[in-house]
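Consortium newsletter contribution from the modelling node. Members have asked for a concrete example of what our holo predictions look like. Here is one, prepared for the S-adenosylmethionine complex that several groups have been discussing at recent meetings.
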Amino acid sequence: MTDENEHYQKNTAGQPLALERRDAAEDGRRYSPSTGRNKDVVRETYLSHMPLKGRVLEIASGTGEHGAHITAMATDLIWTYSDIDPVSQASQRAWRGAADHDRLRGPITLDTTQSVWSEEEEELASLDGLFCANMIHIAPFEAAQGLIAGAGRLLRPAGRLMLYGPFARNAEIAPSNARFSEDLQRRDPTWGVRDLELQILPLAKDADLKLVTVVDMPANNFSVVFEKR
Ligand SMILES: C[S@@+](CC[C@H](N)C(=O)[O-])C[C@H]1O[C@@H](n2cnc3c(N)ncnc32)[C@H](O)[C@@H]1O
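And here is the predicted structure:
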């Protein structure tokens, strides 16, 4: 087990973007305890509501566990990892190397706060799916704005975006999420749990994305699925 938190990308307060210790296997694959707990239900939701064929770009792939777990079951998907954090990218590379298929691609360096996401942006266009778990509350709001705008730019018509994580709902928030949000804001005042109805849906409307479904997930999380018009 190694702990290389000091090498993670830092927030504006100089703290690592990874909130928890991630253990690493000999081959470099990292494991996040929270992803270990949610990856089965996240995959189930993905399989019910997201494209099962074609090209998917994952934003903020972190350890890389979601992409590996989903593509092991969805065998017609080509899945590209991305992240801003080099330590996370190294883990994504290791998950890619350990897979018994070649449908995991990347990682590419992609920061959703940027108006153009990466040098590869043109090649990424006309995506079938975009997937992003647990990023928009652990980043400045500009990251959510950029994510939704990017989905509007890069998804093909009827392509889908899935977000997973905690949300407030129309100014109401579960007590555990309120505590989590306060803790995030103590770490970095630009972070915090976002309000789906008040903050995210207006961005989706501007990006020509219609809401398909909101799925209740364990521990007061939600999966939110949008479709490009
Ligand atoms: C809590 S981790 C979630 C990782 C993974 N999605 C999961 O659910 O296991 C948050 C990730 O967001 C990435 N991140 C933070 N800000 C970002 C940004 N502006 N653009 C892209 N990725 C970002 C971090 O590097 C980190 O890997």
